[in-house]
Amino acid sequence: xxxxxxxxxxxxxxxxxxxxxxxxxxxxxxxxxxxxxxxxxxxxxxxxxxxxxxxxxxxxxxxxxxxxxxxxxxxxxxxxxxxxxxxxxxxxxxxxxxxxxxxxxxxxxxxxxxxxxxxxxxxxxxxxxxxxxxxxxxxxxxxxxxxxxxxxxxxxxxxxxxxxxxxxxxxxxxxxxxxxxxxxxxxxxxxxxxxxxxxxxxxxxxxxxxxxxxxxxxxxxxxxxxxxxxxxxxxxxxxxxxxxxxxxxxxxxxxxxxxxxxxxxxxxxxxxxxxxxxxxxxxxxxxxxxxxxxxxxxxxxxxxxxxxxxxxxxxxxxxxxxxxxxxxxxxxxxxxxxxxxxxxxxxxxxxxxxxxxxxxxxxxxxxxxxxxxxxxxxxxxxxxxxxxxxxxxxxxxxxxxxxxxxxxxxxxxxxxxxxxxxxxxxxxxxxxxxxxxxxxxxxxxxxxxxxxxxxxxxxxxxxxxxxxxxxxxxxxxxxxxxxxxxxxxxxxxxxxxxxxxxxxxxxxxxxxxxxxxxxxxxxxxxxxxxxxxxxxxxxxxxxxxxxxxxxxxxxxxxxxxxxxxxxxxxxxxxxxxxxxxxxxxxxxxxxxxxxxxxxxxxxxx
Length: 605
Fold this sequence. Notes:
Layout: E1 4-9, H1 18-23, H2 32-46, E2 53-61, H3 66-73, E3 94-101, H4 123-128, H5 149-153, E4 159-168, E5 171-181, E6 185-187, E7 190-201, E8 207-208, E9 210-211, H6 213-222, E10 233-238, E11 246-247, E12 254-255, H7 259-274, E13 285-291, E14 294-295, H8 308-318, E15 323-327, E16 331-342, E17 363-368, E18 374-379, E19 388-396, H9 401-406, H10 422-443, E20 464-466, H11 478-481, E21 500-509, E22 512-520, E23 528-538, E24 541-542, E25 555-560, E26 565-568, E27 571-574, E28 581-587, E29 593-602
Parallel strand pairs: 2-13, 17-19, 20-29
Antiparallel strand pairs: 1-7, 2-3, 3-10, 4-5, 4-10, 5-7, 5-9, 6-7, 7-8, 11-12, 13-14, 15-16, 16-19, 17-18, 21-22, 22-28, 23-24, 23-27, 23-29, 25-26, 25-28
């Protein structure tokens, strides 16, 4: 073996301690495996070389190769800094491999004192040696690099092995180096920071990475994945992985998940936290999870019952739809789109319940910056109609990216308003208040007197309106037909764009309350006939036989957005010259839930 561990002594002018670096993460509100997935994918996305990144997570038991791992890394770090280090790499130990391809690898100098050349980047030093350097990728997901501490926290021995291949002076170069964050300690009257590196010890006593042939030889002994062809990218191996704890359903005692449970959790965490990179034509990233070489399925967010509304909302935002939040002195701050769906009883989605961002049907908005990496899901008002759910997306604009980035903690899982500058605070807080206001308008309906609606009779425990944002056309609602194409143009399957129905609102018209619902026809063939079919919903289901004394809601008119009546009644012909956006007006019946469906057919069908 050509490498060895080296422990960093304190410099005379002071140094950062390993304890401090680990504490910079704070106590994330998310599970540590979730934080791991989020941070690693964000690093990979920021390092992308082209338009697509291949990202994978592999869990592997060392087994027979544990001897090679132990001989390479098992000695050299004092127990004063990392307890149990020498026995951590046994046959039953697991490593987690975080891998990306289609990225530039860890570029630049290998020493922190050497400035990078123009256009070279400084990734290697930023990742392995320095802490807290500002991001150098415009509109990237990261900020100051503190989140990489999660890689060490998921290791029982607080150690990682980094295997990267990048381009140096026009040729491929492979670099292999390990690092560890333990406790600061004193030895032989010398103070040490608790930071340790493993590599080839140079003449000045500082470790450098193993390069090319040396990296290849050790990589083969350890069974590392390595690189093929002209691939560039990075593999990070988390040594002696800690899968965290879970509560046993029987007695609530904390237990460690099995490797199988951890792998399935990671697959679901990818779906919940990285789905924006999984959708689109083409998708920005591909994802893979495996356990000892066996692939673990990753739930598809476009078909998952809980995630599907969010994916539709993002497609709407990408196509320029939804609602724009602007400030007069600033311009566009962000854009919000919300999709409403029917709840299918008993269907909660295909993801691991422990990896989900919230319990039960969604009434949330996923917030993200322009890089489309999810920050969090903020909860909105529960719909008055218990038969529906909604999922929304708020994506910050490019010009507001710095303000929202400044609000993120090291784990990028919130927009924290405390401590922001006045200008940033007005943007971040204003966006949150605006989102909640839009959701209240959509889903917190009120009676004409202004009192809250609800508890108004045995027929229904709520007075509500509902026009689910379903695709018009075809038989039955969207949830029974599978996902549709997002946005206004043709989707990846090449299907014709479909009509979109927006969330409803109540209006007073001459003392009469009506339901007004926007119908978007952008990009749709004009030779269509639309039929609006309102229905009464009782006890969460569609009611075909109305209770005695109750009539079916009537369609009053189809109108332009500014109130010009186009046609009376339930049928409306879409022809050349029809506006891209029209509204359908339906009477509101008291003490019931009204559901609005729109179907389309050929104009001469």
